[in-house]
Design a protein that fits this description.
single chain, 395 residues, alpha+beta, 10-stranded mixed β-sheet, two-stranded antiparallel sheet
Amino acid sequence: MKKVFTLALLAMMAIGANAQEADNKPVFTVVKEIPITSIKDQNRSGTCWAFSTLSYFEAEILKKSGKTYDLCEAFVENKTYMDRAVQVVRLHGDCQFAQGGSAYDVYYVLKNYGICPEDAMPAAGSLYGDSLNNFNEFFSLLEPYVDAIAKNKAKKISNQWKVGMQGILDAYLGQCPETFTYEGKTYTPQTFAASLGLDWNDYVSITSYTHHPFYTEFPVEVQDNWRNPGSWNLPIDEMMQIIDNAVMNGYTVAWGGDVSEEGFTRKGLALAYDTKKMESYAGSDMARWLKLSQAKRTNIIDSLGINAPEIIPTQEMRQERFDNWELTDDHGMLIYGIAKDQNGREYYMVKNSWGETGEYKGIWYMSKAFIAANTMDYMVNKNAIPKAIRKKIGI
């Protein structure tokens, strides 16, 4: 009888645990979803900026014309890395050459160099025997090459370094075509970009910090913003209002921000965890919480699921985290929808570029609090901005 009672108790505990897990697992209801192109995979490359922003412009084309395009990341990367190397050399190495970039880099290439479809250049990784991007060998050659030129002791350098640089870029990314055929028509990259039907004057960047005046433009001070384009500086509530207004009116948002926080999981969920409230779940104070191993903290957080407490992001919090290096420029993604969980908490539906990974096959559900706390900046069509805000910034 004792054995039967024990087995029954264990069964009840298992049922209870499963029920708790079910209660904590999000069930999403879509509020608004905008058509997007397919999930891509940047693989082992720091090119989220190229993937996310080309996805953004592909969504813009979808909205405007209903046509689906697969635009070429390698074209954008080839042009951008050469331009970045030129700047590093021009400044004698007093700036960073790296794999990363910004949404503005893609915009700049589209506007100034054009673009081609994906199949007009070699498939990613194919030139060096891989099936996807793998920039390990590529950048182990490229970074020291640029550094050697930029810090050369010669009184005068020739332009031949650009020939060598272009050779490395073409060897790993493929040559950018001068002309190509698409759906029976011949294009140059410039005429192809023009055929997409987008107005390059429609796009602006938005941010929110207090070390510059609100309703003015300034270049966000992060290393991958190396072209130094301006972002419109708005209060946090208006920064978020624009995202909501954009999505509800059928516009996507090319988002850049910090995904290094604990709340950004590899399973497809992102919450702005309130770690001070988490201490109660550790059975002690914050000091104990901080001493827990990462695995134990993750287990506690995972057990809470969507019931984990979130912070209420503030303007002061954003500024403090930016100034102390907590809020960093980690990743670019595409916001394309809004959803709610069973508790009523709202999330943005976000397209990633890590292939069909996580529980939602390449889609992340990122809470509005997470986005408010961790946005570095984002690109949006100016027509998606509420008229009252547009009036304040004069666009």
